[in-house]
Amino acid sequence: MSDRTSPLHDEHVALGANLTEFGGWQMPLRYGSDIAEHAAVRTAAGLFDLSHMGEIMVTGPQATAALDHALVGWASKVAVGRARYSMLVQEDGGVVDDLVIYRLADDEVLVVANAGNADVVLAELVERATGFDATVTSTSDATALVAVQGPRAEEIVTSLTAAGSVEALRALRYYAVERAEVAGVDALVARTGYTGEDGFELFVPADSAPGLWRALLEAGTPLGLVPAGLSARDSLRLEAGMPLYGHELDRGTTPYEAGLGRVVRLDKTDDAGEPLPFVGREALAALQGTDPGRVLVGLRMLGRRPARAGYAVLDGAETPAPVGTVTSGVPSPTLGYPVAMAYVTPGLSAVGTRLAVDVRGRAEAAEVVEMPFYSRVR
């Protein structure tokens, strides 16, 4: 077991959570039924502890300039109060981590990294900010992150919000952030999430997290909210077609292979209109417009047996040959059949292509389908 625990660890134990190691932390895998937790998020709401994520503050007059150099995105174009999905890549374009940046002020940006990569991202940002008038600081130890996700998330969160901020939170757009008092706690509230549903992520002081957690449970339980663990979080994000670092993304994968070339801003320029250099730019520029050796696709399994990460994808020939690898797969609780994401050769990536997956020595039929597998009605 890891020796890193969330500020909400005692709350999880009291709720009878099944704990597991994830990204160097002990985190709740489930509290009861994975399927029930998943269904609650799709129909009402789920309460998640995301305190294992890494929070890094970049501050100073050149905070966004430093991030323009460090990341593939154009941080200085993100408006104050908005958030943006981005990536940190190596010189060869391989993904070090995917992350979300929150522009809190002209000179203040919050970077949220994946748990297992938090220390690496911190070190890379410190190094890449050298020469800029910017300071990079980890605030992870002092911060807890709690998420409420699902169609009743707004109702639950605003029921605990100080009167002066209720309308601001109701009006908050997707990938926007606002400061508010929730259940008596000063919180940075973002309309972001990783489930494919509406919802909020609340960044709060670590010592305030238990009280906020209990208040959200009390307010949300009558509306169908349940605490939800990593297992439900994984099936929810997979249905929504969202990548997970270590599965769909890693240092051997470029944004283009993952179908995320849209986050690479080769068009970012300085005030004089000159191209802005950033780490990985040359490699990514050379790859833009070329055919990658493999592409990420969605698969619908045509039988009942699910594909799992690492399983071989096979072509549809009479004697099947390997043409790719599954990165993530689950029986979809929402759709009622197994779905998976996989890297395959480009010639077999078109929607409708019939393939197979080697499931423990047996070729199970599959079909390439569009992602996301599930999309909520907005």
Automatic annotation (TrEMBL):
EC number: 2.1.2.10
UniProt keyword annotations, A-Z: Aminotransferase, Transferase
Superkingdom in the source lineage: Bacteria
InterPro entries linked to this entry: GcvT, GcvT/YgfZ/DmdA, GcvT/YgfZ_C, GcvT_bac, GcvT_C, GCVT_N, TrmE/GcvT-like
SUPFAM superfamilies: Aminomethyltransferase beta-barrel domain, Folate-binding domain
GO biological process: glycine decarboxylation via glycine cleavage system
UniProt-listed HAMAP family: GcvT (MF_00259)
Name this polypeptide is given: Aminomethyltransferase
